[in-house]
Amino acid sequence: MASQKPAYTRVLLKLSGEALMSMPSYGVDFERAQAIAQEIKDVHDLGVQVAIMIGGGNIFRGIRGTAVGLDRAAADQMGLLATVINGIALQEALEKVGLICRHVSAIEIKALAEPFIRRRVIRHLEKDRVVVFSAGIGSPYFTTDTAAALRALEIRAQVIMKATKVDGVFSADPMLDKTAKKFPTIHYIDVIKKGLTVMDSTAISLCKDNSMPILVFNLNKRGNIKR
Ligand code: UDP
Question: How far is the CA of 150 from the centre of ligand 1 (A)?
Answer without folding.
Answer: 14
